[in-house]
Structure prediction request, 442 residues.
Amino acid sequence: MELRKENILIVDDDINILELLQRHLKSWSYHTYKALSVKEAVQILRDTKIDLLITDLKMPQVDGSELIKFVSEHYPTLPKLVVTGYPSIQDSLVAIKSGVADYLTKPFTKEELKSAVTNSLGKRDNLISSSSNLKPTKDNSYGEIIGKSEKINDVIQVIERVKDNKATIFVKGESGTGKELVARAIHYQGKFSRAPFIAVNCGGIPENLLEAELFGYTKGAFTGADKNRDGFFQAANGGTIFLDEIGNASKAVQTRLLRVLQEKEVVKLGAQKASKIDVRIIAATNGNLKEMIKKNTFREDLFYRLTVVEINVAPLRDRKEDIPLLIEKFLFKFGVEYKDRFVRITQEATAILQRYNWPGNIRELENVIQRAVIMCNKIIDVEHLPDNLKFDISFPEDSLLPLKQIEKEYIQKVLNACNNNKTKAAEILGITRKTLRSKMEN
Prediction:
């Protein structure tokens, strides 16, 4: 039996209910995914394009209502169907406020389920339409891209223009800014989302293997090639291939890549005959390809082929208004993973995270939140943050201040981080309380 296009995610801690729902949905030709917990559900949502969420509300550890809130914030066009054995006015209010498409009470008949599923999927187009009429900053998310800043809004506007065609796209940004998330958004938000998406880290594959991995090889093409094998380009046929750190590709790989772009065909290593392919190429780098062209380490003709459309992803220090939203995303992710609940953060800790300049960008922020969630109980406070963040002091590049003023501001930052505990602050600064008091008074 041929499956429909719709992917339905079922979340319930009762395995019998999961199997019952899956059996009914499969009988109607839907493709189903099962999760026994919110943690499993979040992982599936990250890895798979889901068209309908069916979830219970009352579950141990993380409650289903938290999942509904998370989906509403991060996947606003995904319809939600609640199935519960414990209906209440409060549950109904949570469901309504979170945009739940329908609400079923256990036990329910097969016909009632089918009607609710059909109704919920029917509302999907309305959700997508209403979402597209809003500025992306209203939703605070676009696929896995989180943010409300003007710079993120600019990125999303470009994605909207290119997502439904196969023009070659070049994504530029510092390490850790989320270039792969941009590539995934281009693919999964567009009309080719059901086709393959293949991500390749050109810097993570040894130079002598990258060519074979990308383009495939025939039996006997080189030592160890004991059979014919397709490469990443063949695997991505019909969809998108994301070539991260393209600047690490050798001249041989660059030459073959140029042929793919010009002729829309791939020749395996050791083969004489080319194979036609239909692949959208998205390339990315945190380096300067123009400088590499000057040094003759990157082909200029390939550069212009790759940069039909350019997307610049701003560093996190230039869009600090997005930090609270990113914090919230990572709190949910790691709270579910390590604590089986939603972890919260104090205003003081959030303020420190917003002041920091994040040289490692979003990846560094994610690592800091991950560590803090592990170290805290239920709430992240200043004490759970790394010392280099708590005592960081930074000024604009064009700001030149007297040393005495800088010293005084730094001392105040240490006092704030220590909740004005002068003994502890003096210990951190390596001075006596008397010296501390003197420096603050002068």
